[in-house]
Write a structure and sequence with these properties.
This protein is an all-beta fold. Helix content is 0%, strand content 20%. A three-stranded antiparallel sheet has the order 14-13-16, with no helix packed on it.
């Protein structure tokens, strides 16, 4: 099928439409079986690499008030600290919702995304200014006011402005939408077929390439930089000669972040593969890589993974993760490598409080060896008050030494 190079949509108000937790029809069925191929090797516990260099330089504007309380016993709060009013936050920080209807935290006014921390965007706040907030890209919405920037109404998920795909979570690319047009993050990790393209940005944006076992949404592009960006070290999406983003050769399907994993046989008759959009799968609760199920290559549908087996996206610090997840460098592509994984976040426990799973923690990182919540501070060096950004151990991630809050 021939796809148009540019797709337009009534601007903003889209909800994340992941695949349902059920089997989907394979495009091809008579395929060969084999071992699972590309999966992450998660670190058992990044805090378990040791507390590191206690002398690691820390951005005090983001936490760790070393001067103690002031003379009137008022405790000055710092970036990422929970707060109730501007007066509690150190100048020039302000107290704002970390996302719509989210907890109030000390943050900073901003003019661009570069002013903000990993996982944040410079977005309009409730008082009419622009402040650094958790990105709500991918959050379910029905109207524009459900989102900080805008809602893609037909697809029902929030989006944010972008310059390239690097500004978006993995699983989203950057293309013009609306009239007048604005470049915004558009989701591609969604199932579609010839009779159902509702999750795609346009009816013509369903990729049914022969290399895919299960078809998925895509977007228009001018260069590969418009396409979704996987973790460094993984095969990249490309922009083909027709101006369409194409999945890399190790990706066989579109299932998105936290969708129950599904399996099939690959077109080459050589392996059992998952059909996750980033090829990665994990049990978020146990923090293990589940065993691959037995797959019948004569089956007309995909095969369910074991209970708890979910697709997980790799991530880069700049683009972060879709709403509800944080980019935490707990993954590996093999010996000597470390990559970010999108782990469940926005739990009720702060850094230093007890946890057993990442989802219990506000910043999506449970240091399991220590049994307390942490935050990956590799990118920005910022930790809430009462904790410090400490050095972990090798390997590095995105060329930076791994660091975490403790």
């Amino acid at each position: 099928m021939r796809m148009r190079r540019v797709w337009w949509l009534p601007l903003l108000a889209l909800v994340m439409a992941g695949c349902a937790a059920k089997t989907v029809a394979c495009q091809k069925c008579d395929l060969g079986a084999g071992p699972d191929l590309t999966v992450p090797l998660p670190f058992e516990d990044l805090a378990g690499v040791g507390p590191g260099d206690m002398g690691m330089a820390t951005d005090l504007s983001g936490g760790g008030d070393l001067s103690g309380p002031s003379a009137d016993m008022t405790v000055v709060k710092h970036r990422l600290d929970l707060c109730a009013s501007d007066s509690e936050c150190a100048t020039p920080l302000v107290c704002r919702a970390s996302f719509k209807s989210g907890p109030m935290r000390c943050t900073k006014s901003c003019t661009m995304n570069a002013d903000c921390l990993s996982g944040e965007r410079c977005l309009p706040d409730a008082l009419g200014g622009n402040t650094c907030q958790v990105s709500d890209t991918g959050r379910t919405c029905a109207v524009a006011n459900d989102c900080a920037f805008g809602c893609l109404l037909s697809q029902k998920y929030c989006t944010t402005e972008c310059v390239t795909g690097s500004d978006c979570p993995n699983g989203f690319g950057c293309q013009p939408v609306g009239s007048p047009s604005v470049r915004a993050c558009v989701k591609v990790e969604a199932y579609c077929d010839s009779t159902n393209t509702s999750a795609c940005i346009a009816s013509s944006a369903c990729d049914t390439s022969a290399s895919l076992v299960v078809s998925g949404c895509t977007i228009a592009c001018s260069t590969s930089s418009d396409c979704p960006q996987r973790a460094i070290g993984m095969a990249a999406w490309t922009c083909n000669g027709s101006g369409i983003c194409k999945r890399p050769g190790d990706v066989y399907g579109p299932l998105g972040q936290a969708t129950p994993a599904q399996y099939a046989c690959n077109p080459a008759h050589t392996a059992t593969i998952n059909i996750c959009n980033d090829t990665q799968h994990i049990d978020f609760t146990k923090f293990t890589i589940p065993a691959v199920p037995t797959v019948s290559c004569s089956a007309t549908n995909t095969t369910d993974g074991v209970a708890g087996d979910s697709c997980v996206d790799s991530c880069r610090y700049q683009g972060g993760c879709m709403f509800g997840f944080s980019c935490t460098a707990l993954g590996s592509l093999g010996a000597g490598s470390r990559i970010g994984l999108c782990l469940p976040s926005q739990g009720g426990n702060e850094v230093g409080q007890a946890c057993t799973t990442d989802s219990q923690c506000a910043f999506g990182y449970c240091a399991r060896t220590l049994g307390v919540c942490s935050r990956d501070c590799t990118f920005d060096g910022v930790c809430p008050s009462g904790s410090t950004c400490l050095a972990g151990s090798a390997p590095a991630v995105e060329g930076l030494p791994f660091r975490f809050c403790q």
